[in-house]
């Protein structure tokens, strides 16, 4: 029998960092924006 929950999966937002090819995923666009900012800060610290 097929699991009914598989159909309701929400679309996952994806963003791939151009600097290091790290892929960040989030179910919420606002959270993804925050994660992108946080991730960019890690690159600024390295530079």
Short description, anyone?
This protein is α+β, with helices and mostly antiparallel strands and 47 residues long.
How would you sum up this structure, described in words?
A two-stranded antiparallel sheet has the order 1-2. The chain contains 1 helix and 2 strands; from the N terminus they run ββα. The mean pLDDT is 85. The radius of gyration is 15 Å and the shape is elongated. The chain has one domain. It is of the alpha+beta class and 47 residues long. The chain has one helix at 29-46; strands at residues 13-16, 23-26.
Report the average pLDDT across residues. Answer: 85
Strand order, largest beta sheet:
1-2
What would the principal axes of the Cα set say about the shape?
elongated
The termini sit apart by: 53 Å
Q: What Rg, in angstroms, do the CA atoms define?
A: 15 Å
**Percent in helix:** 25-40%
The tally of domains stands at 1
Profile the largest sheet: 2 strands, antiparallel
Percentage of β-strand residues: 15-25%
Can you lay out the helices and strands and say which pair or pack?
Blueprint: E1 13-16, E2 23-26, H1 29-46
Antiparallel strand pairs: 1-2
Give short descriptive properties of this protein.
two-stranded antiparallel sheet; 47 residues; single chain; alpha+beta; elongated
